[in-house]
Predict the structure.
Amino acid sequence: MNYEDLYQTLLPDEKTAKDNIASLQNLSKKITKETESGALKYLSRDLDNLAQTTAILAETIERLQAKVNAFDSRSYFESGDFASQMLDICHETELDVQGEFPVYEMFPYRIRLDVENQDVYMDKKRIQCMRPSSLVNTVKAGQEKLQKAHFNAQSFVGELAEAYDLAIVKQNRQTGTDMYLTTLYKLMTPMSRFRRDYNLQNFSFDIARLYTEFVNGMNETKTGRRFDFGPARNNKKAVRILDANGKEQFLATIRFMKD
């Protein structure tokens, strides 16, 4: 099954419906004027036209409804056709995607296919979407919006430094020791409701933007503390990001040195 096939069959009737709705609106205006002015000859003609146009519209709607009802949306999801076509479009458009059915990551979004209800979840947002290309376009638009959003790298790295200092105290370690980014994330979001509002994907996206600044030469906080990212020896504990070139990177740790 492929929604694009259904989409192509709907287009002609959709145009017919649109044209007839426009005609009905135009006829409605004419009839109102003719009724007010008493132009009975024209009024009788346009009432006939209204009846004919309404009948054509009704037939068109029936055809559209029959085609839509014939499309087995549950099977489309359960069979994996939706997911397969979605992945093909991601690869064709060079949209980074990871994961397996029914959960995927399109950095920084988590995409979940709800087979039971034939819905798609983009993080916590539910999207009723049967067209894979539309979903991919929605993700790309979201990514572009996030990229354009203001990001204060110095403010963010300052918050990381505060979480880092707290982790050093809690673990009785020395300043300059590598600390897992995921450990700092948990310290920055101590309560579950904070993590709902600022999930790990959001954190990873901010790390990606900070990493871009780091690569471009920013390696100090406002107070002059130098920082550096550590290697990812265990990708399970690393934060997966896409760098400024769209390449996959795994960042596991960060360390802050004394002023």
In short: The chain has nine helices and ten strands. Strands lie at 98-100, 103-106, 109-114, 119-122, 125-127, 179-180, 227-230, 239-242, 248-251, 253-256. The radius of gyration is 28 Å. The chain has a mean pLDDT of 93.
